[in-house]
Write a structure and sequence with these properties.
Blueprint: H1 2-19, E1 41-46, E2 53-54, E3 60-64, E4 70-74, E5 77-78, E6 86-91, E7 97-101, E8 107-111, E9 117-126, E10 130-134, E11 140-151, E12 162-163, E13 169-172
Antiparallel strand pairs: 1-6, 2-5, 3-4, 3-11, 6-11, 7-10, 7-13, 8-9, 8-12, 9-11
Length: 173
Amino acid sequence: MKTFTFQVIVLAVVSFLAMNKLQAQVRVTGHVSAEVITSLAAMETAQLNFGRFAPQSAGGQVTITPQGTQSATGTIALGSGTHNAASFYISGESGALFSITLPNGPVTLTNTTNSKTMVVTNWISLPSQGMGIVIPDRGSQVVLVGASLVAGTNNDNPVGIYTGTYSITFSYN
């Protein structure tokens, strides 16, 4: 009886294997997806403007905070007139994270009539530079930028308008 049972079991296994051939490979269909989001865009809406000042005997620094507050150190005499922080309008996907990268060194401003120069340093932004800034539900964020302008004496930096450019990078995280 044991032999007969064993033979029946072997016959059943062989029949099963014959009907359902063992396969060395199996093909399965996988699925993939992607979502395109709104591109990150940036536009300068206000230029960084240190305003009017006179360096006098020893020079110094003029600072503009991201909130637009102007201050001076050294022998700088602040004049009347307009001064302001830079402003950038950032738009993109609501809820996405982006980062700000400010200039990593000094930026040179050049006198438009005599080629004398001054440098801009100590860049600061609001929100702060770095990663992890969330684009609000409305899909836009304003970034304000301030810095310090290093001015020499009246001889180093004579009367005139000084201009220059700088690069700021906004990127999705």
